[in-house]
Amino acid sequence: MLPLLSHQQTLEPVYLSFLDELAQSAFEGDIDSRYSARMVQATDNSVYQFLPQAVIYPAHQQDIELLLSLAATERFKQVTFSARGGGTGTNGQSLTHGLIVDVSRYMNKVLEVNAKEGWARVQTGVVKDALNDALRPHGFFFSPDLSTSNRATVGGMINTDASGAGSLVYGKTSDHVLGLTSVLVDGSVLSTEPVAKADIRSEPQNLVDQLTKQVADACEDKRGQILSQFPDLNRFLTGYDLKHVWNDELSQFDLSRILTGSEGTLAVITEAKLNLTPLPKQRVMVNIKYDSFESALRHAPSLVAAKATVVETIDSKVLNLAREDIIWHSVSELISDVPNKTIEGLNMVEFAGDEQDVEARLAALETTLSKQLENQQYGLVGFQITKDKSSITQIYAMRKKAVGLLGAVKGRRKPLAFAEDTAVPPENLADFIMEFRALLDSHNLQYGMFGHVDAGVLHVRPALDMCDPQDERLLKTISDEVAALTLKYGGLMWGEHGKGVRGEYGPDVFGDELFALLEQIKGWFDPDNRLNPGKLVSPPGFGPMQFNVDSVKRGTFDRQIPVNVREAYPDVMNCNGNGLCFNYSHYSPMCPSFKATGDRIHSPKGRAGLMREWLRLLEAEGVDVLELAKSKPLGMMQRIQNSLRSDRDYDYSHEVMESLKGCLACKACSSQCPVKVDVPKFRAQFFDIYYKRYMRPAKDYLVGGIEDSLPLMAAMPKITNFASQNSLSKWLIKKSIGYVDSPLLSVPTLKQRLDGHASRGYDLEDLQALTEEQRAQHVLVVQDPFNSFYDAGLVYRFIQLVEKLGLKPVLLPYKPNGKPAHIKGFLAKFAKMAKDSADFLNQVHQLGMPMVGLDPALVLCYRDEYQQILGDKRGDFEVLLPNEWLVDVVAKQLENGSPSELSSEESESKLHFTWYSHCTESTAKPNTAKEWQAIFKHFGAQLETVNLGCCGMAGTYGHEVDNLERSKALYEMSWKEQIKQQADKGQILVSGYSCRSQVKRFDGFKPKHPIEAILELVTQD
To answer: Across the chain, what does the average pLDDT equal?
Structure first.
């Protein structure tokens, strides 16, 4: 049976005392010492795993001053801290065994934008793309770019001196920092900005004065050595920027330069004044295709010489992974195949600036490329030009997603980030990469490559299995070899993503004397080594670094899970921590529960991490989770007793349940996540096992059994509606079951609406007797529980539409789909339902007639969950979405020479509709919007599409009392304002039943389904 699980990772007494005292103080933020919260913050986008003591979310700078002041007292001198933002570090930058200070939850405001002077003042928890959203109306952007820009915070960028695409033009983060506000380890506030040499106090009056003078004097004294020792690169070394604290004339000093790139080891940076860049008036991208990756690399210098703003390169492995991802639909026409050629490398070249200048540079490059292509030079096989801004954005989105896509490769070995941000002088890059590839080939490793060739930075991720101790040792070997190789070519091992645990290589780069100066600076700021200890350097006298490349990795814990269990839970194990599920945008469908709560345990990454620990703890208890899944539940009395004791007896399973029950099961993660982590899949598996020990809530039985009970309720819909909708019943249902706002059954019912209609005459033998030509005129309508019983009018109108199109509809007998049962983890019940429905649909499939279902979530369940639960027994049946079927109908009409139903210019100008995306549908079927647009165009109307986040209903999720607040919050994030802006509500189209119900609940009207609008179009005179 499922045992009580204890992690045995209790808080150290000094931390427990500190947190208790902090909670009793004037601290206004959040203090989270749950094991689940600690586990989620134990990893980042690296291979490392360090469990913190707790996570602190300060509400404002004063909270940070308070907690560091409290920690400065003698009894808490052992307490250590690490500031954290988006958690996207690739080398354990913010990981710690102390306290995490996460500024992303509350300290994420844009405080001031001065468009006249071209600067902004921000809190360091603001996400980079969110900052640019605020700057765009002013005509500016914060230009340092990075692949994780939709979840990485400005604080993280400052602490790693981040840069990315276009850095030769736009520079690094440090080039845009005008001033910083930080809190020192004693709780005092440090404000830094450039100061004249004459203004540096010769006799310091306070700690700020003292730090300024110490750093200024030391860096001036060592100036010659610093200039000769530091590599001449576009990238910065991180920790600490001795070179740029002084300007070239030694007349101006800027202590901010020491903090920028310090990875939280000197102070907690809370605010930044940033220099802004005007938005370019013109942007053009040229996608250049090559016969090899080496050709792309060797051609890059000439592209930089063509005055390109950006030159980005990806190899065939990354390109092919992108082709297999959902994102490819948005760029396939922009990077089209070349007949009889194989694209093995790609350079993405952007020109940005004034229109005339951009056009001139583009014309020159186009002429050059055409000649080179004609002469078969540089391995060119073709190129494409796009001037459309949205297309350029989509291409960059593909390139940015490439970082995570590498984690989607098949097999146990996965491309890992540990030596993947090397930087060498651009002129050395091609030779360096060839030797780098030879190094990896010598170890028989697979790898992917992409990066910023204009700056000499290429991301190389060798594929290793961290569950294999031999591969873990190999990681250290390769790290050592790559560190030596970069030095050989005059470069750095850490050219872009910060140093993190790689501080052990510092002495070789800086030299002993300058490395000692770095240690001294650390000692001046943090003499007791309490701010992100073990990273970059330690203060003098602290001995070897606490962390290094050999520090504890996630694989150390993962390998404790048996191989067969890892294979049974691939979504849990494959999460690589890239954090795309932390996307800040309310208009991004993944992940709604994280967007509503701001709690990382309610994210795909968080849930996968908690499940991995659950599997590990089960193995530690000697429990075979695969056998446990097959076992029967405990007796009811035992489950009741266990449930009654759940508040008294700690069980880690409760923390996993807290995380998973907040999931909306929207499945956006299963397609949007680069490695396709399917949370609803392992959520259902966990629910099934959890409730073998504990009692299920009543609402689970209500939801899980709804498909079986609906036909019975629909036999007397008015009585059922009265029984469920009167005030007393609503109160009882809310209090006893925890269910609210249940919808009304349709009156008249679907059966009543179609009484005597030919579509109800389903007879398999009659259909089998039809000729092939006759069958081609039939359409089989697959019922679903929501539309057939709660929106029968829609099903009726779809049948009318089929008839209007000259075809014969046949309403198939109602068969439960099983998705509600799957969502609640009734896996045995779901398997039975799926088998029964699949057997029936496979039988009907033999007729060769199109089968069409109306609700996206239910139709897609046939394709996904049925395949998971039934495997080969699912069969080959296919249920189409209405748009998929209509696209085929339209194509056949055009083949037969049939004109559009309404094709005049007048109808084009008058008939406008707006389609609101359904999150499950738009993520699983990204071409849906284009298909609907083509359909509406054919029938003489214009369709605009609006991509929104989750509406917050998600089947029955929004009806549960526990979820009501989150459901409403999600609706208000993106849907409510968009609905408000739409003047004619009759032109709003929504394909998902849940979404239409949510709009009706919170905005008082029910939008049309697209097929209802099509029906109106085809019935017009």
So the answer is: 93
Find, among 218, 271, 285, the residue nearest to 246 by Cα. Answer: 218
Tell me the pLDDT tens digit for each residue of 437-470: 999 999 999 888 888 888 888 888 899 999 999 9
Q: Which two tokens stand for residue 862?
A: 């046939």
pLDDT digits (tens, 9 = 90+) for 921-973: 888 888 999 999 999 999 999 999 988 999 999 999 999 999 999 999 999 99
Residue 203, Cα to own-chain centre: how many angstroms? 51
**Radius of gyration of the chain measured on its C-alpha atoms:** 30
At position 65, the amino acid (one-letter code) is E
What is d(CA 629, CA 181) in angstroms, rounded to the nearest whole number? 53
Determine contact, residues 674/788, Cβ cutoff 8 Å: no
Report the C-alpha gap between 559 and 550 in whole angstroms: 16
Helix, strand and coil in the chain, % to nearest 5: 50, 15, 35
Alpha carbon distance 704, 820 (integer Å): 5
Provide the residue count of the chain. 1021
Q: Who contacts 1020 (Cβ-Cβ below 8 Å, separation ≥6)?
A: 901, 902
Q: What is the residue whose two structure tokens read 């370019």?
A: 280
C-beta of residue 1010 within 8 angstroms of C-beta of residue 915 = yes
Which of 970, 982, 972 has the alpha carbon at shortest distance from 912? 982
CA angle 816, 822, 823 (to 5 degrees): 115
The arithmetic mean of pLDDT across residues 893-906, rounded, is 60
Residue type, 181: T
Task: Name the pLDDT band for 171 (thresholds 50, 70, 90).
Answer: confident
For residue range 335-364, list pLDDT tens digits in order. 999 999 999 999 999 999 999 999 999 999
Sign of CA dihedral 981, 986, 992, 997: positive
List the alpha helices (DSSP H) in 952-1007.
Answer: 964-970, 976-981, 993-1003
Tell me if 349 sits within 8 A of 311, measured CB to CB.
yes
Three-class SS of residue 376?
coil
pLDDT at 1021 over 80: no
Do 200 and 213 form a contact (C-beta atoms < 8 A)?
yes
- In terms of Cα–Cα distance, which of 853, 983, 857 is closest to 913? 983
DSSP string, 749-760: -HHHHTTT-GGG
Q: Are 901 and 939 in contact (CB under 8 A)?
A: yes
Structure tokens given for 174: 């440090």
The CA–CA distances, whole Å, from 611 to 35, 569, 667 equal 13, 9, 17
Give which of 60, 50, 110 is closest to 535, Cα–Cα. 50
Nearest 5°: phi and psi at 288? -105, 130
Rounded Cα distance, 643 and 631, in Å: 19
Q: Please list, in sequence order, all residues whose beta carbon lies within 8 angstroms of the beta carbon of residue 872, skipping any fewer than 6 positions away.
A: none
The structure's pTM equals 0.93
* CB 265, CB 545: distance < 8 Å: no
